[in-house]
Design a protein that fits this description.
Largest sheet: 4 strands, antiparallel
Strand order of the largest sheet: 3-27-26-25
Number of strands: 27
CATH superfamily of the largest domain: TolB, C-terminal domain
Shape: elongated
Helix content: 40-55%
Strand content: 15-25%
Radius of gyration: 35 Å
């Protein structure tokens, strides 16, 4: 028996060795996520693992360090805030030098300029100090004396950066005018750069419209948030992160101060931003998460997290700064643990970076293979599908590009690829359309001539009417009269029984079918639900619940206000008022599968006309069925909406009470079981 077990172990070992290696989720204390095409986080292979942790340089410890940068020589420069100095060391923990003692009081920001100078922001000294790499003090910048700076504007430097034009960018605590710009050569104030915009809420706008100046003066001013940190890349573009509600968490600013980045940071407290070798953007959140974006703002990875006190590698008590070296290693500074964790990219991350680099360099053909390998390792990595789709599109392989963009849920790219595919198909088949139109025209002329000569349509109609009584079908088809003569049609429904409950229920079923078809089977770029996601049960309940709520609320309001319509008339007329929807919506749903974003305005215009048309028919229905004036009709509409709101609130209250009762019963039963078991 023991020999058999040994053979099985050996066999399994050999199989493990022979199987091809695939990077899997590493055994780390944190998970790595990426973003799918719907903007949701999905778990992916580990992108970065901790290579080393630095807690000191030789015997020099750092205390409450607030900022950090990596030099061209690979040295680590730390704003050692608690010890009032700059600490320079190597990644192996070797101390190089310290400087700034006796000069710095609370260094909170550090930046290494293109001309090998060290700029330090000191918020207690309220100065920006400039040192050489060796630590010699070269220059100081104090509060600008220019009247353009503002008499009440504060100068409490928190962070600092310098571009290649020797413009110094300073973030001052409490100064909401923007990032301060100073000329590094003469210390003159240049101006404020890219302030955060104040977002005016509807409530604030309403208050400003109705409040007096005295009342407004007593309100708290709406002041934009000050940027939290900044950085500058080789091209001179400024990157800034900000904290606060309704502000852009990350901005990529051109020389005019305009944000050219379409990205959102999902962290509530971003504190640091860094640029990698591929112009990738790294953002650290105060709570320990690290985000990596492409240069265009697509999220590649997010990892890390907050430590729960177990001191696990890869997690943080807090992050104050991150930096990236030439090997794409990420250095994350924890001011509470007083340590630096160095993350190195895994094989999977290197594969993604390789694909991205090839694509950004214009080598689309070479980028396809690594993109395909990324997809093979993780089919849910939608950015790889996007990259592959872009590569196919550049090669004019539009069919494959179409499939990749659809996998990536990238609607803009899908629209562009579909435009090309459709144009090619139309060029190849336009002659057949011409043949069909000619044949249709000739056939219509022949049938028209035969009908005028023999009146065959009338004869067939009369014979069918004599032999069969299609009252239900007549009631169903009566809906077309609503298009031409709505007022007469409502009169016929109310007084001549031109429609029935059966025909109305038939059209109600068609309305539900069209609702489902539009939701799930519209064109990919016009669909507002996830592909492959169906919730027909909830759709059915929600649709018919809303319909009954509206009908019953309206009928009750009309009854109270002397409306002449019976429930049958209101029920039937309400459904028949959707006649334009029934007639034209199916064509729009089909057409949406053949349109691109270039023709989206046509689809939106057609939908707008349909809904306005239906709204007018409903208005006429309420007026004619109940014999109201226009003023009464408007009043009834508002009362109906108010009653619907009250009904929804009551149902919600009942739902909450029932839920609490169930929870109370469950807790009571659990308490009884617990006491019985512990007697």
């Amino acid at each position: 028996m023991k020999k058999i077990k040994k053979k099985i172990v050996v066999l399994l070992t050999l199989l493990c060795l022979l199987l091809p290696f695939e990077p899997a989720l590493a055994n780390t204390a944190y998970k790595t996520f990426t973003e799918d095409g719907y903007g949701q986080y999905v778990e992916t292979q580990t992108a970065y693992t901790v290579r080393e942790t630095i807690v000191k340089f030789d015997e020099e410890l750092f205390l409450q360090a607030a900022d950090m940068k990596i030099g061209k020589d690979g040295n680590i420069y730390i704003a050692d805030t608690g010890n009032k100095r700059i600490l320079v060391g190597k990644s192996d923990g070797t101390l190089v030098r310290t400087f700034g003692e006796g000069v710095l009081q609370k260094p909170t920001g550090i930046f290494l300029s293109h001309d090998d100078k060290v700029y330090v922001a000191d918020e207690v000294a309220t100065k920006v100090f400039v040192f050489s790499l060796e630590g010699e003090l070269l220059q100081e910048f104090e509060r600008p004396e220019s009247i353009l700076f503002g008499e009440k504007a504060t100068f409490v430097p928190e962070k600092v950066a310098v571009d290649k034009r020797d413009n110094v960018y300073v973030i001052s605590r409490g100064n909401s005018n923007g990032i301060i710009q100073i000329n590094a050569n003469n210390g003159e104030f240049i101006g404020y750069f890219a302030p955060n915009q104040t977002v005016v809420t509807p409530l604030t706008a309403f208050r400003k419209a109705i409040f007096t100046e005295e009342q407004l003066s007593k309100m708290i001013d709406s002041v934009p948030a000050t940027a939290k940190n900044l950085n500058i890349d080789e091209k001179g573009l400024v990157y800034a992160v900000s904290q606060g509600e309704r502000v852009e968490g990350i901005r990529k600013l051109n020389v005019a101060g305009k944000n050219i980045l379409d990205a959102a940071v999902y962290d509530d407290f971003p504190v640091s931003v860094e640029i990698g070798s591929l112009e990738n953007i790294f953002v650290a959140g105060e709570n320990g998460f690290i985000y990596e974006y492409t240069s265009e703002g697509n999220l590649l990875f997010v990892f890390g997290g907050q430590d729960d006190g177990r001191q696990r590698v890869g997690l943080f008590s807090k992050i104050s700064a991150i930096a990236v070296d030439q090997n794409n290693q990420i250095y994350a500074l924890d001011p509470e643990k007083n340590q630096i964790q160095i993350f190195q990219p895994t094989e999977f991350a290197n594969l993604v970076h390789q694909s991205l680099e090839l694509y950004q360099n214009g080598d689309y053909d070479a980028s396809k293979e690594p993109w395909q390998e990324v997809i093979r390792l993780n089919g849910l990595f939608d950015f790889a599908h996007l990259g592959l789709g872009e590569a196919y599109f550049k090669e004019e392989n539009y069919n494959l590009s179409l499939d990749s963009f659809r996998q990536a849920k990238y609607k803009e790219g899908y629209s562009d690829a579909f435009w090309e595919v459709r144009n090619k198909w139309m060029r190849e088949n336009v002659i057949y359309f011409i043949y069909i139109l000619i044949a249709w025209f000739i056939l219509a002329k022949i049938l028209g001539w035969l009908n005028r000569k023999y009146e065959w349509k009338k004869q067939v109609r009369n014979r069918v009417n004599e032999k069969y009584e299609f009252k239900f079908i007549k009631n169903v088809l009566f809906i077309k009269n609503l298009i031409r003569h709505p007022i007469d049609s409502y009169y016929s429904i109310q007084h001549e029984n031109k429609a029935s409950y059966g025909s109305a229920i038939f059209w109600l079923g068609i309305l539900f079918v069209l609702f489902v078809a539009e939701k799930y089977y519209s064109g990919f770029i016009f669909r507002y639900v996830r592909e492959g996601e169906f919730s027909l049960g909830m759709d059915f309940v929600g649709f018919f619940f809303l319909f009954l709520l509206v009908i019953v609320s309206h009928y009750l309001i009309c009854t109270i206000n002397d409306g002449e319509g019976k429930f049958k008339h209101v029920f039937i007329s309400f459904i028949y008022a959707f006649a334009p929807f029934f007639i034209f919506k199916p064509f729009l749903i089909i057409l949406s599968n053949f349109l691109t974003f270039n023709e989206a305005y046509l689809l939106n215009l057609a939908n707008f006309i349909i809904y306005v048309w239906v709204g007018i028919l409903l208005f006429v229905m309420i007026k004619e069925i109940n014999d109201y004036t226009i003023r009464d009709t408007i009043k009834i509409i508002f009362l109906t909406l108010f009653m619907i709101l009250i009904a929804v609130l009551l149902l919600f209250i009942v739902y909450v009470l029932v839920l609490q009762m169930i929870q109370f019963v469950v807790s009571l039963v659990n308490e009884g079981v617990y006491r019985f078991e512990n007697r």
